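Thread amino acids onto this structure.
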């Protein structure tokens, strides 16, 4: 399967100085002292060029400090939203990354949107349709990449601009293997709900279970070497693979943390998929613009820090949880059956995820 690279690398350069300055020096009205003019010209060159060289050296050293991140963005049939998800990655304050868009039986419209990005950091992998959400294809791409850190984003979600920067800083500064952040939900038609996910519940084990279950792939970043401990995504699952993989990472024994800090805007498919066809433009477009406003980002984050929840907020949380249980109950039973099947196969020495996850990728 071919990988397509978009755009060309931009080159870092620093201009040696302002030519107007040189002309100003050479036109000094001292015609009878040619020697002084020459000295002034030489001094100008020394003054203007040397700082430029130092700046180049400094930029290169800073760039070397940035460890690149491999980002996996799976997509199937969302041409109306995938472009905004890609843009939210390209607008990150942390510039060192490779964005791998994994096409799981992409529609032609979706593929066209992905190919329209002319940025050398964006790579596209067109696969046929895999089982469920195509976890097998993610594994194929992950095995072909090599950066120290790995992150994920869905084709309808958006990152705050500092998501990668804060994630890498936490992994590096605290010597962690995994870091997860808080997300907030955008409700139809146009409302940010910072309390949709029950991260603030204080009910012992139940609270921890809910927080871990509602942590999607767009919210966590991990070290690549954890694959050696926990394996890759379970290609035998039809759905809920991001939750299952996250909990394997979280319980691997590697140092990990959850930071109660919002870095992700999520657009739940069950709330939005029936809405897009009736909208003039997807909500991701206006929210991507809002995310570029630091004041707006701060206001959203502050709205999630309130320690006391009102009755209506709690009531809405319970309604959301009940609706999730009704919609996902049968799917959860299937998830449990698939997990049991995978476990039994591993016990017998026939690891399903290892035997079927290696489609070849030819690089252009």
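Threaded sequence (364 positions):
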């Amino acid at each position: 399967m071919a990988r397509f690279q978009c755009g060309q690398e931009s080159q870092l350069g620093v201009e040696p100085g302002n030519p107007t300055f040189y002309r100003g020096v050479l036109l000094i009205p001292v015609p009878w002292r040619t020697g002084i003019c020459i000295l002034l010209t030489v001094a100008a060159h020394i003054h203007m060029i040397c700082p430029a060289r130092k700046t180049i050296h400094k930029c290169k050293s800073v760039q070397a400090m940035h460890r690149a991140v491999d980002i996996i963005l799976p997509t199937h049939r969302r041409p109306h939203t995938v472009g905004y998800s890609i843009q939210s990655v390209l607008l990150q304050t942390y510039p060192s990354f490779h964005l791998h868009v994994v096409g799981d039986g992409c529609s032609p419209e979706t593929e066209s949107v992905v190919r329209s990005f002319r940025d050398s950091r964006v790579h596209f992998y067109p696969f046929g349709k895999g089982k469920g959400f195509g976890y097998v294809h993610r594994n194929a791409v992950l095995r072909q990449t090599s950066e120290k850190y790995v992150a994920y984003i869905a084709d309808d979600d958006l990152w705050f601009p500092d998501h990668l920067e804060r994630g890498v800083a936490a992994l590096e500064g605290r010597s962690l293997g995994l870091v997860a952040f808080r997300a907030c939900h955008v409700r139809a038609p146009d409302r940010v709900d910072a309390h949709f996910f029950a991260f603030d519940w204080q009910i012992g084990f139940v609270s921890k279970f809910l927080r871990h279950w509602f942590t999607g792939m767009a919210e966590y970043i991990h070290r690549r070497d954890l694959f050696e401990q926990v394996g890759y995504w379970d290609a035998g699952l039809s759905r809920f693979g991001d939750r299952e993989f996250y909990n394997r990472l979280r319980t691997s024994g590697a140092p990990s943390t959850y930071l109660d800090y919002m870095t992700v805007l999520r657009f739940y498919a069950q709330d939005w998929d029936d809405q897009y066809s009736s909208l003039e433009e997807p909500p991701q477009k206006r929210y991507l613009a809002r995310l570029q406003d630091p004041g707006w980002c701060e206001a959203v984050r502050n709205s999630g820090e309130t320690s006391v929840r009102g009755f209506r907020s709690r009531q809405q949380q319970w309604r959301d949880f009940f609706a999730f249980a009704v919609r996902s109950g049968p799917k959860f039973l299937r998830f449990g059956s698939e997990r049991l099947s995978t476990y039994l196969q591993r016990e017998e020495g026939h690891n399903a995820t290892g035997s079927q996850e290696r489609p070849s990728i030819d690089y252009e």
